[in-house]
Amino acid sequence: MNRTHSRYSMIVPVVGQPATLDDTLASILRDLPSDSEVILVHDGAFEDAYNIGEEVILVDAGTGRLSSLFAAAFAHCSGDIVAVVRPGVELSENWGEIVGERFADPSVGSAVPIIVSQTKPDQIVAAGVKTNYHFRRMLAGRGSKLAQRVFGRLNPLGPTSWAGFYRRSVLAMIGDLNFKLEDHYFDLDLALTLKAMGYTSAIMPGCVCKVNRPALIIREADMAHGASAQRSIVRHASHESSFSRGWVSFVAEIFAGVLSPGAFQQAMGRFGASRFWSTDNAFAERVNEIVRRKQVIEKTGLRVHEQELSADVSAAIEHRRQRRRVA
């Protein structure tokens, strides 16, 4: 991708009528490259009192779920790079040039900006998301100082849902982006999916975004994660380890619950994930099929055509399911 000709589709998911929306849009439009677009996707409660629909594309998703908002907006995207910026976050100056440099590498599937607090601009709120053995969602760089130059050892899996950039062609391979996951795990799930497909995530120390209410980002990271973590294990851990990893995580949290009631709550939450097992297992099957077919295409030296691959995978999985039903 030629960075000087990158086109951006900037997705701004809106629930209700956020007071911080104007500042977010202003930071996007300030340095928006030519031929790019801004898509404001909302839950149906948004009122366009200032006719911003003349400058941005308005999409009514009819829901406030983050993955549904993202999927609805993605259907309208035409840019090479797709971004999600939630109200309350202000992008840094010259963000387009910085992002374009990262996506010049074809192996990069996503790019991670640094988010800091407006009141404490030297303190990192989030530099992407990461996880551990138990698949808990955590914020990379949380609480670190910008002056410490910690970027080399952060190694996030991908950006947070508050501010992140993705290669559109890679997202197109996944197919349906409406993951029906809890909002606070949507970004981690997307990051793990892209990693499984063989793409890397590039951190951008020069793209420092400010958030006016960092407590919202931190509160999401501290939310109960038991059910979401267990679902992530089924979706992204290998089939050989998903059961044992879930069991080990459950036992570890039960014992930790002796000292921390929150840990016991996490363990109990893992039971609730069982009702999503068929959905999550089907998603894992789809990702594995994408990876397998992508690797076959790459070995031949041919270019991967993302839309065709996504449709081909859907047809292959449906054919396999029909054979199982007949059997």
- Could you spell the SSE succession in H and E letters? EHEEHEEHEEEEEHHEHHHHHH
Radius of gyration: 20 Å
CATH superfamily of the largest domain: Spore Coat Polysaccharide Biosynthesis Protein SpsA, Chain A
Spans with pLDDT under 50 lasting ≥5 residues? none
How many domains, in number, for the residues?
A: 2
Question: How many E strands?
Answer: 11
Helix content: 40-55%
CATH topology description of the largest domain: Spore Coat Polysaccharide Biosynthesis Protein SpsA, Chain A
Termini separation comes to 46 Å
Number of helices: 11
Largest sheet descriptor: 9 strands, mixed
Structural class: alpha/beta
Beta percentage is: 15-25%
- The chain-level mean pLDDT equals 88
The general outline is: globular
CATH top-level class of the largest domain: Alpha Beta
CATH architecture of the largest domain: Alpha-Beta Complex
